[in-house]
Specification:
The protein has 242 residues and is mainly β. Helix content is 11%, strand content 45%. It has a four-stranded antiparallel sheet with strand order 3-4-5-6, with no helix packed on it. A four-stranded antiparallel sheet has the order 7-8-9-10, with no helix packed on it. A four-stranded antiparallel sheet has the order 11-12-13-14, with no helix packed on it. The N and C termini lie far apart (124 Å).
Length: 242
């Protein structure tokens, strides 16, 4: 009888040690052993945030625990924050007065509203999103400006280039101070402060010998050379002294 009791105690102790060892292995499991998707990107464009618009507060009163918006301040749009445990994760977007997210909450900064159908966004660098939720220009530029003829001036590392409203980069940002002249031409500079004209194939149309720049009007523009002499420059490349 004594031997049977000893055997039972031995079995119980062995079983407990095994269970404790397994529990210890689970508790000591490293975070790297848990699969987490790091490549997933937030895209809540078009989401209807539960809640209602308060005319008195001029804000969207969110009933969704994961979203919080700011005041519209008389504007058509307001910024909205997606609540997250990760403080470093970009979580700012744009909402309208119907409670619809019109710019996905995945940015660290943005302009409140749209210009020509575009909203400037940022995650360290600048980019552009259209009013259909599509990121037209990625957030890789130092600044972006609008030019006529449905173009953007894009700046990176102090150099300018051009992109169109579809997001196609027409000229990479590699020209200091480049500005759009119109008629498919842009000004480029050659030191010391001499301006010429190129097309979007980056072919020189007018040599860099002018000290001023201005936009074309009806296919021509008046520019000055060193000494103040004025010339009429045509978009065809023709240059005539006045």
């Amino acid at each position: 009888m004594k031997k049977i009791v000893i055997c039972l105690i031995t079995i119980l102790l062995t079983s407990c040690q095994k269970n404790n060892k397994e529990a210890e292995q689970v508790n000591n499991k490293k975070p790297t052993d848990i699969t987490i998707s790091k490549g997933s990107e937030i895209n809540d464009f078009g989401k209807q945030v539960k809640g209602h618009y308060s005319k008195e507060e001029d804000s969207w009163i969110s009933e969704d625990a994961f979203y919080e918006s700011t005041s519209f301040d008389g504007n058509e749009y307001a910024s909205i924050y997606r609540l997250t445990d990760n403080e470093d994760e970009p979580h700012l977007g744009l909402i309208n007065k119907q409670g619809k997210i019109v710019v996905s909450t995945k940015y660290s900064g943005l302009s409140i509203g749209f210009v020509n159908g575009f909203c400037e966004v940022s995650v360290d660098k600048k980019g552009m999103v259209d009013d259909k939720g599509k990121e037209i220009l990625p957030t890789i530029y130092d600044w972006i400006d609008f030019a006529k003829d449905n173009l953007f001036v894009i700046n990176k590392d102090g150099k300018n280039g051009f992109a169109d409203y579809t997001g196609k980069v027409l000229v990479k940002p590699k020209y200091q101070g480049a500005t759009y002249a119109g008629n498919g031409l842009f000004y480029f500079m050659k030191e010391p402060q001499r301006w010429g004209l190129m097309n979007f194939k980056e072919e020189v149309v007018v040599q860099p010998e002018f000290t001023s720049t201005s936009e074309f009007v009806n296919g021509k523009v008046v520019l000055q050379k060193d000494g103040g002499e004025e010339y009429t420059v045509y978009s065809t490349g023709k240059v005539v002294k006045n």
